[in-house]
Amino acid sequence: MMSEVKQQPLAIDVDLPEECWELIFYLLLDHHRHFESLSLVSKHFLVITNQLRTTLTVSDQTTPFLPRLLRRFQHLKSLDFCGFHGDLESILCLIAKSNLDLEALNVSNQKNLHLNGLHVLGSNMKNLRSLNCSNVSILQDIHLFVIAASFPRLEELDISYPEHKNFFSSIGSEDSGTFSGPVTDLGVSELSSRLNNLIKIDLSGNQFITDKSLIYLSSRCVLLREIAVRDCAFITQNAIAFTISHSPGLKSIAVNEIGFPSVDDVFKESFLHAKVLSDLDLSNSFVSDELLNSIVEACLPLNKLILARCHGFTFAGLLLLLSKYHSLSLISIEGVNFLTDQNIYELSKFISKLTSINLGLCSKLTNSTFFTLTRNCPLLNEINMERTNLGEEEFPTKFVVNPQVKSLNLAQNGKLSNESIKKFVAICPNLQVLNLSSCRGITEEGFEEIFKRCSEIRHLEINYFSAITDFAIDSEVSKLEKLSAKGSGVNDEALAMVGKRSCRLLNLDLAGCLNVTEKGVKEVVKNCRGLREINLKWCDNVNIDIVAWMVITRPSLRKIIPPCGFVPTESQKKLFLSHGCCVCEG
């Protein structure tokens, strides 16, 4: 296994071109995290892996090493600061002085976007194509002015859901200048005027923009293909219709809470002008049968359709729509409560090319629907049936195996039993992602069958299984990488089994597991050599003294959420920093 590679002399053909080695590494490794162990093999491999690294995620613990990392990885194209909480301005200035040619930057979740840092970075990173500024505490028109001026080649921009937690305290500050309010049409107008290459923009959650913003964008950004305006209270159907009608290249639009009190004719007719629209998201909206019929008449190249928690339409309207669009690959009809097993059987005749379906919160759907989908949709890769009525009916004696299904979300199905889950995993033997949180009818017997049948499981969620204490992992080389068992009854014996069988584990969440002690945690940490994150919050029976031991014992750890009450000493803080591990205070 790659994470267990030890440094030792190797006979390497130095005459083999580096391009060949790069191809070999790409074929052997599915993620850049494996480069770390491979780089230990030889100096030659170190040089090659340094060149292959194109993305870097920066945390608070990474900051002291950032200058060295930027010199080491000179081919970086993407930097991610979404988990960084320090002085972003100085970091942006540092990056600007590097020789990097960045194409993507994520500065989401920040307290503020310092104007000087953006300006300095933009003056040196002229080829930046993608910028994510979502969920920042303060976002104002002045920020959009600076973004538009500093990054003229932007193709993708996300300024969704600004929080404005400290908005009033920022008024009059050096960064706010004369722009003392949140984002308005003025800022969006500046973006639309300067960003001629804009292809994708997310304006969701900006409560003070109006129809003018959409009109500016659809009139001036001729390359616009994707736009999202969820939770924008002053955006009306008229503006959405204008955008659809006047953006000839528009392929994706995401809106919500439209159609109240009724669907306007201009909105229905706009779809006749949408020649290339393939992705349509109308979540939480009033969607009438007439609107669905308009979409049918438009003959769109529709690929993805999201009607999650929509109301106002009937089964007849939905059937008409799906009978027209046989090429749909993704559909979400979450929370459409009138749907029955018989309805899904009728719909399944027209969705044979489907790869993903979301039926969460459809409370009338039972095991019969699961059987119908896996039998009639041979390309199906992902099924979400969270909070349905699974377990209510038995399976037929004969069923069809569907090896394409890789992801199942069956959480919060209280009636789901061991017998049902045995059938499910027999039908879907190639599962990689499985969520069974709060399915309290499943016992250790069911989990033994899961690991026996599904050797490809990589991500397992068993949150809030208070009755589960132990389970057997049958495979000697379990591929499990992420295990979430929050609030479960998992004990030390179960953790010992995880450590023994799941040596590829990267992420372990044990928050609120009261049966776990430091004994079980040590088994995991000692045996899972690639472990990067562990959450022990509210694990009241785990001694807080184990934290420093974990950091020293497992160098791969990058984030630890310790038991409540843990406060690191100054010497421990230095230890954690030197190991590059982020340890939160309990």
From TrEMBL:
<feature type="domain" description="F-box/LRR-repeat protein 15-like leucin rich repeat">
    <location>
        <begin position="339"/>
        <end position="461"/>
    </location>
</feature>
<protein>
    <recommendedName>
        <fullName>F-box/LRR-repeat protein 15-like leucin rich repeat domain-containing protein</fullName>
    </recommendedName>
</protein>
<dbReference type="InterPro" id="IPR057207">
    <property type="entry name" value="FBXL15_LRR"/>
</dbReference>
<dbReference type="GO" id="GO:0019005">
    <property type="term" value="C:SCF ubiquitin ligase complex"/>
</dbReference>
<dbReference type="InterPro" id="IPR032675">
    <property type="entry name" value="LRR_dom_sf"/>
</dbReference>
<dbReference type="Pfam" id="PF25372">
    <property type="entry name" value="DUF7885"/>
</dbReference>
<dbReference type="GO" id="GO:0031146">
    <property type="term" value="P:SCF-dependent proteasomal ubiquitin-dependent protein catabolic process"/>
</dbReference>
<dbReference type="InterPro" id="IPR006553">
    <property type="entry name" value="Leu-rich_rpt_Cys-con_subtyp"/>
</dbReference>
